[in-house]
TrEMBL record:
Belongs to the HAD-like hydrolase superfamily. CbbY/CbbZ/Gph/YieH family. Its EC number is 3.1.3.96. It catalyses: psi-UMP + H2O = pseudouridine + phosphate. Gene3D superfamilies: HAD superfamily/HAD-like, Putative phosphatase, domain 2. This is pseudouridine 5'-phosphatase. Its cofactor is Mg(2+). Keywords: Hydrolase, Magnesium, Metal-binding. Signal peptide: none annotated. The keyword Disulfide bond does not apply. It comes from the Eukaryota.
Length: 236
C-alpha cells in the first residue's frame, strides 16, 4: 500500500476539530479481537475471513457477535458467542500496546490546542480495561464517547450517530464539516462519510481497495499524516 494517497475529488477542506477511533487505530487491539473470533470459529469448524472481518470491525460488540454468528453460520447463539468473545479477548486487553504514530499525533494536537475527542464502539467496561496502561495519554482528550453503552448513540457504525454525538460534545459545537475523523475500519469510514465528515483511514493492510475507496485519505501508519493539508498545525 502507498504510504499516502487520497480519494478526495475536490481537495481537502480545512477543519478545526479531530475525532479518533481507538481499536486498530490508536491501540493494537484488533489483533486480539481477530484472535478471539478466529479461535471461536475454528472450534466450530469455520474460518474467520478478511471479508467477514471487514463487516465486523468498527461495529459495537453485540452487532459484531451477531454478524459473526450469521456470516459463519455458527451453531451457537449470539449470547453464547459474546460470552466466549469476552472470555478470550478480555484476558489480553489490559496489556494492549499503542500503534505506530498514535502517541505522537495525539500529543501534537493537544499541545497545538486542537480540540480532540474519542468515538469508540466499545462499551465502557472494555474501554477501561484497554486504557489501564494508557490513562495519561487518553486524559488529553476533551471527551470520550463509548458507543456500546452511550444512550445517545442510537445506532452503531456504519451509521453516523457516534460521530455526530461526539462532535456535539465539544464546547465549541463544531459543524460536522469542521471535524476530521481518524479510522481504521470500513464501517467507521462509512459512518464518518454519513456524518458529512472527512476521514483519514489507516486500514488493515489486508483490506482491498473496495474497503478503502470511501476514505478521504488512506495511510499506512499515523506517522504518514500531514495535518497541514487540513489546515491543522504541521508536525515538527
Amino acid at each position: 500500500m502507498n504510504r499516502f494517497y487520497s480519494n478526495a475529488v475536490n481537495g481537502f477542506k480545512k477543519v478545526s476539530h479531530v475525532i479518533f477511533d481507538v481499536d486498530g487505530l490508536l491501540i493494537d487491539s484488533e489483533k486480539i479481537y481477530r484472535k478471539a473470533i478466529s479461535e471461536i470459529a475454528r472450534n466450530h469448524g469455520k474460518q474467520y475471513t478478511i471479508d467477514i472481518q471487514a463487516k465486523i470491525v468498527g461495529t459495537p460488540e453485540r452487532e459484531s457477535s451477531r454478524i459473526a454468528v450469521t456470516e459463519m453460520k455458527l451453531p451457537i447463539s449470539v449470547d453464547e458467542f459474546q460470552k466466549l468473545f469476552r472470555k478470550i479477548s478480555y484476558l489480553y486487553l489490559s496489556s494492549v500496546p499503542l500503534l505506530a504514530g498514535a502517541e505522537r499525533i495525539v500529543r501534537h494536537f493537544h499541545s497545538s490546542n486542537v480540540p480532540i475527542a474519542v468515538a469508540t464502539s466499545s462499551n465502557e467496561d472494555a474501554f477501561r480495561i484497554k486504557m489501564q496502561n494508557h490513562q495519561e495519554l487518553f486524559s488529553l482528550f476533551n471527551h470520550i464517547v463509548c458507543g456500546g453503552t452511550d444512550p445517545h448513540v442510537k445506532a452503531g457504525k456504519p451509521h453516523p450517530d457516534i460521530f455526530l454525538v461526539c462532535a456535539s460534545r465539544f464546547p465549541e459545537k463544531p459543524s460536522p464539516e469542521q471535524c476530521l475523523v481518524f479510522e481504521d475500519s470500513h464501517n467507521g469510514v462509512l459512518a464518518a462519510k454519513s456524518a458529512n465528515m472527512q476521514c483519514v483511514m489507516v486500514p488493515d493492510e489486508r483490506l482491498t481497495d473496495e474497503y478503502r475507496k470511501d476514505a478521504t485519505v488512506v495511510l499506512s501508519t499515523l506517522h504518514d499524516f500531514k495535518p497541514e493539508l487540513f489546515g491543522l498545525p504541521p508536525l515538527n
